[in-house]
Specification:
single chain, eight-stranded parallel β-barrel
Length: about 325
């Protein structure tokens, strides 16, 4: 079933969903099941599975020179989605990214997903590689998520890359995109950022899932501005609790989000690792309850492999 169909069937009730990372290469599916098994009591209608493009490392050769070698640390997104649907009987939402994919690779991935009856995708550009100063697309790939959305929508209309395919199967993908309540850090201003979202919705995107945020006022403002801009699709808030002291610096740096003053005051008072985690959990519970009371279609939790913390939050909210 499509993600948007779940929202319609809920008739205003707030649903719950989770996002997981594939295990590192060499890891097992059991690691994923261990994360999700304790969360199934909340009956999520769908689970997101992230995708990670290749990274590069430099290996020293016998000659003494360095060789640049591509590695993929977290493969298996499509296979994991199929396994989750089989084990839990729920829908999986694989992330599709521009980085590391040619247009042909994207088309082939979409064909595989369609054959597996996976009809929801989250179309995102993806981040720059670790040692790249900016996002560099694959040669023959997409530069922007907008172009990726357009390719998916073309397949929904039976249009393939090969112009000789005149009667191609029409897929039926429900397309999600990313949203940034505090503005994407590369957008020159808030208005331009919203124009990119509007362009993707006009191209066929069906719903928005936001980057994490720690002040609900940012999300409510984002909702309002999206509505004024003519963006009428469901907007799902993404949430993550602070669980470690180092995240006070790493989360704003990596994800380009702000911590509100009240949260920082409480975190500064916390003088143990346990106290920091308690502050983060209580803050996320408060955020979740307020968003649920406001009638958001779904609360989307970034698990980051910590199902115990997410389960505790959900027990308080649902």
């Amino acid at each position: 079933m499509k993600v948007t169909d779940y929202f319609e069937k809920a008739h205003g009730e707030t649903l719950i969903s989770f996002e997981i990372l594939p295990p590192l290469k060499g890891g097992s599916m059991q690691a994923i099941f261990d994360i999700l098994d304790p969360l199934m009591e909340f009956k999520p209608p769908f689970i997101d599975v992230t995708y990670h493009r290749e990274e590069f490392i430099y290996q020293v050769k016998d000659s003494g020179y360095y060789e640049k070698v591509a590695i993929r640390k977290r493969p298996g997104t499509v296979g994991i989605c199929a396994a989750l649907m089989h084990r839990y009987g729920i829908d999986a939402v694989p992330h599709l990214i521009c980085g590391g994919f040619t247009k042909e690779d994207t088309e082939n991935a979409l064909i595989d997903l369609n054959f597996l009856n996976i009809n929801n995708v989250l179309a995102i550009r993806g981040d720059a590689r670790k040692f790249d100063g900016k996002f560099i697309p694959e040669e023959g790939g997409h530069h922007y998520a907008l172009d990726l959305v357009k390719q998916i929508q073309n397949m929904n209309e039976g249009k393939y890359l090969d112009p000789n395919i005149t009667d191609g199967l029409q897929t039926d993908f429900c397309i999600g995109i990313a949203g940034y309540p505090e503005k994407h850090f590369e957008a020159p201003n808030y208005s331009e950022d919203l124009s990119y979202v509007k362009a993707k919705v006009d191209a066929g995107a069906d719903f928005v899932v936001t980057q994490m945020f720690f002040e609900n006022a940012h999300f409510f403002k984002y909702q309002e501005l999206c509505d004024k801009a003519g963006i009428k699709v469901p907007i799902v808030p993404g949430l993550k609790p602070v669980t470690r002291a180092y995240q006070v610096n790493s989360i704003p740096r990596i994800f380009h989000v702000n911590f509100p003053e009240d949260l920082m005051k409480e975190l500064k008072k916390a003088n143990t690792s346990k106290a920091v985690k308690e502050v983060g959990i209580e803050w996320c519970i408060h955020q979740s309850k307020e968003l649920k009371a406001a009638g958001v279609p779904c609360l989307h939790y970034y698990t980051m492999g910590d199902s115990k913390t997410i389960r505790r939050i959900c027990k308080e909210v649902f």
